[in-house]
Amino acid sequence: MAKSAALPVELEKMATVPLSDSDTIPANPAENAAAGDNEPQYPTGVKFWTVMASVTVVAFLMMLDTSIISTAVPRITDEFHSLEDVGWYASAYQLASAALQPLTGKIYTKFTLKWSFLAFFALFELGSTICGAAVSSTMLIVGRAVAGMGASGLMNGGLTIIASAVPLDKRPSVTGSMMGISQLGIVCGPLIGGAFTSYSTWRWCFYINLPVGGLVAVGLCFAHIPDQIKKSSPLLVLRNLHHELDLIGFVLFAPAAIQLLLALQYGGSDYAWNSATVIGLLCGAGATFAVWLFWNWRRGEDALIPLSTMKRRVVWSTSVTQWLLMSTLYCSTYFIPIYFQAVRDATPILSGVYMLSSIVSQLLFAIASGFLVERTGYIIPYTIFAGVLAAVSSGLTSTWSPTTPTGKWVGYMILGGSGRGAGMQMPMLALQAGLQQAELAVAIALLMFFQMLGTAVMLVISNIIFLETLRSQLAALVPDVNIDDIIKAGATGFRKVVSADDLPGVVLAYSNSVDRVFWLITGLGGLSVFTALFMGWVDIRKKKAPAAGSEQA
C-alpha cells in the first residue's frame, strides 16, 4: 500500500522514451520526439513493475539488515560478553560496504546490470547465513563484513537499474519512492528485531533475509532489466579485468579505508590514542590514500573514481550531505534502544514499540516529501528542513534522563523521524537530476561510499564517546564498583552484577553516556544544513541533465 501511495499516477501512463546518441535521456517530450526511433526502449506495464518491485524489496532487506540488530545488541553482548564489540557489529558491515563501493560502480559499468545485481545479492545472503549461525562475537563480525560486501552493490545497483529503466523526467519520483519504501527497513528494523529477540532468538534477525531473499532472487532471474549503455562481452572484460575495473586503484583504496576505521575503533579502547598502533594506522591510511589519489590522476577517466567526477559540485555536495543525514539516522537507531533497555529497563520488543513514534513520522514525511518535490520541483528546501529537525530533535534527546516523561521523549522522536523522512532521499534525487546516465553508476558509487564509510566512522566515534563517557561516569557516580565487570556484563546484564544501592548510579551513568552521543548527532544535523546549500537550486521539473564535466566546484 505504501508503494502505491508513493508512486505518482503518471507512471501508469509511462511511455517508451528513446535515448540520445550520447546515451543521455532527453528531459522533455519535445526532445524525446527528436531523439530518433532506433534507440533502446524502457520497460512498461508488468515488466516495469516487476523490475521496480524486485529492486525495492532488495533495498528494503538491505536497509532492514542495517538496523534490525540494534534492539538485539544488548542480548548479543550478554550472550557473547562483548559490550566493547558493539561498534563492530555495525562498523564491520559499513566498512566492508564502503571499501567496495568504488569497485561496484565500475562493475555495473562493465558488466550487465541484472547478473551483477544478483551476484551482490547472493553475497549479502551468505553473510546473513553466517551471522545467524554465529557461535562467537568474532564470527558474527565476520558475517556482518560478508553481508556488507554484498550490500555494497545493492543500493548502488538498484539506483543504477532505475536510471536504465525510467526516463529522466520520471526518475525523481521513482527514486524517491524506492528510497522511501526501503527506509521502512531502517525504521522497522528495531521493532522486528525486538520481536525476534524477545519471543524467539536474535538469530532470526539474520535468518529472515533467507526466505524473502530467495523469492526475490527467483523473480529477478525472470525479470528483464535493460542495459542502456553499450557494454563489451564479459569474456573480453575478464581478459583485461585489472585494467577495466582499475583493480590497482581498488587495492590502494580499500586498505586506506580499512586502516582509518581500525584506528578509530582501536583508539581509546584497545590502545591509547597516542600509541604506536593507532598513530601507525592513521599515518598508513593517509599515505595510502595519497598514493591512491596520485594513481587516480595518472589513470584519468579510466580511474576507479575519476577526479573529474569527484570535482563536480553536485557530486561532492550530495555525497557529504547524504553522509551527514544518514549518520544521524544510524547513530540514533543504535543508541536509542540502549537508552530504553539499559536506562528504562525495557525489553527488546518494548524498546522497539517505543520507537513507533519515530517510525510512523518518518514514513509519513518520506511519502509527503516525495509528492512535494514532484509539485514544487525544488530539493534543497526539504534537505534543509531535514537537517534542522535532525539537529533540534537530537539536541532535545541529549537532555533525556532516567526520569524523562513519556510525552517528551515521544515528541522528540516524532521530530527526529519527521526530519529523517523528509530528507534522506533528497541528495540522491539531486545527484540524478544533475548528471548524465553514463555518469551515474560511478557517481552513485561515490555517494554510497561517503554514506557507508561516513556512517561507519560516525558509529565508531559514537561508540568511543559512549564507552569513554560511561567509564568516567561510573568512576564518578559509583566509585566502588568494578567498571570492567559492568561493561563486560552488557547493557542489560549489568543489573545482575551491581547491588541495589549502586544501581541508580550505574543507570544514570548509562543515561549520561547516551546523551553525549546525541551531542555529536546534533552537530551532524546542523552541518548538513550548510552542505545542502551547494547541491544546486534548480527546478527538477525543467532541468535537463548537463553535459559531462560542465559543473565544477
Automatic annotation (TrEMBL):
GO molecular function term, any single one: transmembrane transporter activity
Membrane-spanning parts: 46-64, 115-135, 141-166, 178-200, 206-225, 245-266, 272-295, 315-340, 352-372, 379-397, 443-467, 517-538
Major facilitator superfamily (MFS) profile domain mapped to chain residues: 51-540
Any one GO CC term of the record: plasma membrane
Domain of life of the organism encoding this protein: Eukaryota
Compartmental location: Membrane
PROSITE patterns: MFS
Membrane topology of this protein: Multi-pass membrane protein
Keywords: Membrane, Transmembrane, Transmembrane helix, Transport
InterPro entries: MFS, MFS_dom, MFS_trans_sf
Family: Belongs to the major facilitator superfamily. TCR/Tet family.
PANTHER family: MAJOR FACILITATOR SUPERFAMILY, MULTIDRUG TRANSPORTER, PUTATIVE (AFU_ORTHOLOGUE AFUA_8G00940)-RELATED
Protein name, as recorded: Major facilitator superfamily-domain-containing protein
Organism from which the protein derives: Cercophora scortea
